[in-house]
Amino acid sequence: MLRKPSRAETCVQVLLAILLAGVTWEYLHALGGSSCGLPAADHAQSCYPWGAEGPAADRWEYASKETYLRSTLVMMWVFAAALVAPLITPGMWSGLGAVLVVLVLGLYRAEWLASLF
Known about the structure:
Blueprint: H1 7-31, E1 34-35, H2 43-46, E2 47-48, H3 65-88, H4 92-108, H5 110-115
Parallel strand pairs: 1-2
Helix pairs in contact: 1-3, 3-4
């Protein structure tokens, strides 16, 4: 059964909704992006540092375009789960705790989650 979230939970949910919208926009933008190592005419606006190049070379999310898109999908799922968590918990503190647990575990294990699909 769903419950009405408190004001504190609503503020957190608004923040999570903004983050979810930003990550969704990033995912859609990255679908059409190309690697910065490839020659392109409008290279500056839509290139990503995929592969072993640039300041993000040691980050697992940037290993390839496919890995980046998977990791972005995982972030979308984590933010969506955290957004819903206060609605299905019995009280305010359990709702905020559930948001924290979902965010910490989801983002901490994002690499493993992305490898599942």
